[in-house]
Amino acid sequence: MSHMVKMSPMLLQASIAPALAPANEVRLVQVFDPMGTQYPSTSWQRAEELVLSNRAEWMPGRGKGELSALQLTYVPFMIVAQVDPTQDQMGETKSARARRHNVATLRKRDGDLCFYCLNEMTREEMTREHLLASHTGGSDRNENLVLAHARCNKAVGHLSIAEKVRVRERNLARILLTAGPDFTHRLLQQLKIMPVEN
Hints:
Layout: H1 9-20, E1 28-32, E2 38-43, H2 44-52, E3 56-60, E4 67-72, H3 77-83, H4 94-110, E5 126-130, E6 145-149, H5 150-156, H6 161-178, H7 181-190
Parallel strand pairs: 1-4
Antiparallel strand pairs: 1-2, 3-4, 5-6
Helix pairs in contact: 1-2
C-alpha cells in the first residue's frame, strides 16, 4: 500500500533544489532581497536552510527548471552594511549624514535666516556657504560656515569675506529703514542682536 504525501510549495521547493543543485557543492547561489537588491552569494546548503525556515524562496534560473537564485523574504540589515559600508540602512552616505548634522548645528546657532538676504529659509532651501571659499583655503569648520539660499550663495560666492559681510549689512540696513517696528523687532531677536522677551 502506498501513501501519498501532500507537499507544501516550500517543501516541494526544498526537495527539488538538491536534485537541481550541481554536483559540485562549491557553486554559489545568488541572493536578492524582496526589493531586488543583490547581496553576497551563499552556498547551496545555506540556501536550502533559508528556504526550509521560510526566510527565502527559490527563483528561476537561466536554464529550464534551473534554480540558481534565492529571494529572501526579509531585508537583512547586517548584510546591507557589509555590501556598502558608506551607507546606512536608509541609504544615506556618511558625508550626507555629516552635512545634515552640520546644517542642524548651524541652524541652532544662526536660526533659519539666510545670511545674506535675511529672509527665512525652509530646510530644503538651505545651503552651506563658506565665508572663506574652499578653493582659497577655507575650512569646513562651523566658524567658516553660514546658511544661505542657493541663489544668494551663488551671487556672492566670488566675493571676499569683507565684501560678503557688507552685502549682509546693506540688506540689514535696508530692512531696518523700510520695515515696520514689529518686523524689525522680530528680526533683531532672530539675529540675536536683541534679547527675546519672555
